[in-house]
Design brief:
Length: 487
């Protein structure tokens, strides 16, 4: 390695690598146990069982309606309806299927369909005008001993829940509390798991689509109103985790391939969006947000790429694009506003870190506002570490970095206001570092630095400090050295 990365850069990159190792171990884990549905009514059963209890208020005009049908052996139905104008339609075909349901309220519609072996469904509804559709078709998955199961709890009015499970061993559990929420789960093929563990609020829309083998999508919490969450996995051993707290947020994750990992680690705020797209295998992407009106996008095409972006502040727009294999990219913005960060990497084993207003030990209260960072690396094994903010404010900065070629290195630290830095490296083995292999330091106001290197093994080293000034370095050829010092 040509240079020593900053403490922040090293720690984040090490965390990304450690995360990949832990993910690889987690992907091969054995399918965990899943909570069972209520099945006490089948303890003494010797064949098919139907238990139906209906209770309506005195003098009701409509009454409840239940259509229950069983064909096969040892199927069990236990339905309780309390209220008026409710409709329950349940059909069981096959062996050992179980349905347990309690509907309390008015004008709810529940449709349950099972065709196969040992499909289990539980539905608890408390409220009115809710619609529930559950379809389970499977016979135990590829190994024949893990079966479809769906446990659902709805409290509130005008909610819609649709669960469609095919083949075998798929699990889908949902808990909904609020008004006008829509949740749709589609699981084709085998062994998928979908968990919307705690949805509280109004007007939220959740869509989960899983195809292939043993994909997991789990959101521990969605709290707020009018959030949209779409999770799609097609392949094997893909994982999606996250939670949302706030209003009018949009989450869109798409995975195509095997062993990919996407996480919404911390997402609190309003009117923000998070998008992760993964095409390939063993990719990892994480987004953290504590802000309003921020947009995040990570696109990974290839294998074993790692991407991270996160912010505390508002009106941020972060984008990471990785095309190739073994790329590492991280954008971090703490305590800043109106930042625009775009990172594009094309090639293999590139490393790029961009930060704003972050201290060595985490969020420091420093500000790096109205910054625009645009960094692009095309080639192999390029390193770029960019950091804005330090002991003083760093505002109104514009930084553009482009590295085209092999084994280029950039480590830059900026402190000050109204800076504009434009750096281009094209060729092989170019360096831009500080003295003693530490990051180049730029401190001051109103400075403009432009560096262009075309050729092989060029080196620029030094630091800039002061108010005002402009430095331009242009090197064309081989083995050039430039030292920059301005105080």
């Amino acid at each position: 390695m040509k240079f020593t990365k900053t403490t922040v850069a090293s720690s984040i990159l090490m965390a990304l690598l450690a995360g990949q190792a832990s993910i690889a171990n987690a992907q091969t884990a054995v399918k965990d146990d899943n909570p069972s549905i209520q099945s006490d009514f089948m303890i003494d059963a010797v064949g098919n069982v139907i238990n139906l209890t209906q209770s309506a208020p005195t003098g009701n005009a409509l009454g409840n309606e239940a259509i229950l049908m069983q064909e096969g052996d040892y199927n069990g139905l236990d339905i309780t309806i309390v209220g008026d104008a409710n409709m329950v339609d349940a059909e069981q075909l096959g062996e050992g299927n179980l349905i347990y349901g309690v509907v309390t309220g008015d004008e709810n519609e529940v449709t349950l369909y099972q065709n196969g072996i040992e499909n289990d469904a539980e539905v608890i509804v408390q409220g009115s005008f809710n619609e529930v559709e559950i379809s389970q078709m499977g016979d135990g998955g590829p190994f024949g001993f893990i079966f479809n199961r769906s446990i659902n709890d709805i409290t509130g009015d005008d909610n819609i829940l649709i669960v469609d499970q095919g083949d075998g061993g798929n699990w889908a559990n949902n808990s909904i509390d609020g008004y006008g929420n829509e949740v749709e789960i589609t699981q084709t093929e085998d062994w998928h798991e979908s968990y919307i563990s705690y949805l509280v609020g109004d007007g939220n829309e959740v869509e989960v689509d899983q195809g292939g083998y043993y994909n997991i999508a789990s959101f521990s919490e969605i709290t707020g109103n009018d959030n949209e969450v779409k999770l799609e996995s097609d392949g094997e051993y893909n994982r999606i985790y996250g939670y949302v707290y706030g209003d009018d947020n949009s989450v869109d994750f798409e995975q195509t391939g095997d062993d990919n990992y996407a996480e919404l680690g911390l997402f609190e705020g309003n009117d923000s969006s998070a998008e992760i797209t993964q095409f390939g295998n063993f990719n990892e992407a994480t987004i953290d947000n504590l802000s309003d009106n921020s947009d995040y996008e990570i696109t990974q095409i290839g294998d074993a790429n790692s991407g991270y972006t996160g912010s505390i502040g508002g009106n941020n727009d972060f984008s990471i694009f990785q095309n190739g294999d073994l790329n590492l990219a991280s954008t971090v913005n703490f305590d800043g506003f109106y930042n625009l960060v775009t990172i594009s990497q094309e090639g293999d084993e590139n490393t790029l870190l961009a930060e704003a207003g972050v201290g060595e030990d985490g969020p420091s209260g420093y500000y790096a506002d109205d910054n625009i960072i645009d960094a692009e690396q095309i080639g192999s094994q390029n390193d770029a570490v960019i950091r804005l903010g330090g002991n003083i404010d760093s505002n109104y900065n514009t930084l553009e970095v482009a590295q085209v070629g092999d084994l280029n290195v950039l480590d830059l630290l900026i402190d000050g206001s109204e800076n504009s830095v434009d750096i281009l490296q094209e060729g092989n083995d170019n360096w831009i570092v500080g003295d003693d292999a530490y990051a180049m330091t730029i401190t001051g106001d109103g400075m403009s630095l432009s560096i262009s290197q075309v050729g092989n093994d060029n080196l620029v080293t030094g630091s800039m400090s002061g108010v005002g000034g402009s430095i331009t370095v242009n090197q064309v050829g081989d083995y050039n050295v430039a030292t920059i010092t301005q105080l």
